[in-house]
Amino acid sequence: MNILGIGSHPDDLEIFCGGTLAKYSQRGDKVFMAIATDGRIGSETLPPKKIVSVRKKEAQESAKVIGAELIWHGFEDQAFFDSSETRLAIIDTIRKVNPDVIFTHYFPDYFSADHNNVGFTVNAASMMATPPNIKTKNKNISHNPPVYFFETAAGLGFNPDEYVDITNTLKTKQEMISKHKSQNEWLEYHCGENLFDMSSIISRFRGLQVGVKHAEGFIRCKAWARPIIGNLLP
Asked: How far apart are CA 107 and CA 40, in angstroms?
């Protein structure tokens, strides 16, 4: 299978579905990690150009942990909107990957407008990757990929209907998160929390809901013309 995760910022995929992506990779599926924005806001000390460089390198190191291919869109952090430019870019990424399943942000996620806008744009683009009259670098694909929405920040307003047991990939998830050193420092400054506590508390809570140690929860997009029968989660 080809698995495509599309997150707003470097570290979003690791926090919200890193354990699941690791499970796909371990069983031999090809994982792609696409990052919509450049993360230029995420520092209290570094200027935008410098923190962008740091965050891109951190994202590359994280992707290497599970042998994933990183796709860096580079749109401006905290200024991502659903537009012709962003939609065509996401459509082209979907066509490049030809995914069997897509993971992205649930909306609304009140923590970040980028989360909302990326989730909305990805959901729309996933239905627009098939029409040949929409021209991008990569050719149109032949199917509408299923979309799974992952957690909101701290799980607020999110009630999963499907789960993945990540007990055996929790350490891999944490290793991926550890590569985002700059963002652990930023979250401590900006929110008074750290990435490890936030992600492990949520995964433990989701695990309690389904009788395992740690889990990640998802909501499958249920809409006409999308395949919604059968389980695609690892």
From this structure: 22
Residue 194 is assigned to a structural domain of this protein = yes
From 108, 106, 102, select the one nearest 125 (Cα to Cα).
102
- Name residue 34's beta-bridge partners: 6, 71
Compute and round to an integer the Cα radius of gyration of the chain.
16
* Residue 25 maps to a domain: yes
In which residue are the tokens 């991502």 written? 80
Residue 231 lies in a domain: no
Backbone angles phi, psi at 30, to 5 degrees: -90, 120
Q: How far is CA 193 from CA 16, 39, 55, 188, 201, in A?
A: 16, 18, 19, 5, 12
The answer to whether position 227 is within a domain reads no
Tell me the CATH number at 95. Answer: 3.40.50.10320
**Which structural domain range is residue 45 located in?**
2-220
pLDDT tens-digit map of 191-227:
888 888 989 999 999 999 999 999 999 999 998 888 7
0.90 exceeded by pTM = yes
Q: How many domains does the chain have?
A: 1
Sequential DSSP letters for 78-118: T-----HHHHHHHHHHHHHH--SEEEEE-S--TT-HHHHHH
